[in-house]
Amino acid sequence: MMKNNTEAYRPHLTPAPNRLLGKRALVTGGARGIGQAIASRFAQEGADICIVDIDVSGAEQTLQDLHSPGACVMAVQADVADRSSVEQAVEQAIAGMGSLDVLVNNAGIITFGSLMECRLEDWDRMMAVDLTGAFHCTQVAAQRMVQQGRGGRLIHLGSTAALMPAPQQFAYSVAKSGLKMLSQCAALELAPHNITSNLLCPQGAITDINRELLRDPELMKAIEKKIPVRRLASVEEIAAAAAFLASDEAAFITGTELVHDGGCTISGLWWR
Prior knowledge:
Blueprint: H1 5-8, E1 24-28, H2 33-44, E2 48-53, H3 56-65, E3 73-77, H4 83-97, E4 102-105, H5 120-148, E5 152-157, H6 170-190, E6 195-202, H7 217-226, H8 235-246, E7 257-260, H9 264-267
Parallel strand pairs: 1-2, 1-4, 2-3, 4-5, 5-6, 6-7
Helix pairs in contact: 2-8, 4-5, 5-6
């Protein structure tokens, strides 16, 4: 069977050795998918890694697969929607790694549905995880970064849904647009402390959230047709963008969105 464009294209991505050496990073939702790829990329570039996930066994499995010679890697169980759980996770991360330099707000969920179909319980849970959870992590991590006095990086996993409405993603789009403003407000407030805050906006990649759905070759073909480069991103490509934002190379970049979408948002074709 012929592969679709996304499966056929395999980018050659080479991590920059030691680019993140000496940095201590906390990645939420790192047990699988994009978060897992980010944790792996950071470790390959020399960072110490703490994966925070509600699925601690999955996080521990991810740690076993990391290529991180000499680096500190650890897993902590937490629900980002629970404030006390986040506070404990950050304290454990700092106790294990010694400090905290990078926060990746990646944990998130999605329940598909339009405005007219959205159930209150789905709305509440998505806001609790995708937006309030990011607030908890950002505030707690930023407080510690300010206390440390050595600057830091806040990287928030947004979506093109933060920039334009996405079909059947009403609550998700609202949550991600709120995350965009959270990132911008944090950028302004924390700039004097040498802490940057940026939103990474991928159009999408094949992960556990959508894997079964995208097994339909006709649906996959239709989705790829709407993307100007005619394929979805790989999780490794998204992780490479996150590694750049975490690095010293991005020290003067804050309060912006790194749009990682193959031309989707400029084409204006996604909704149609």
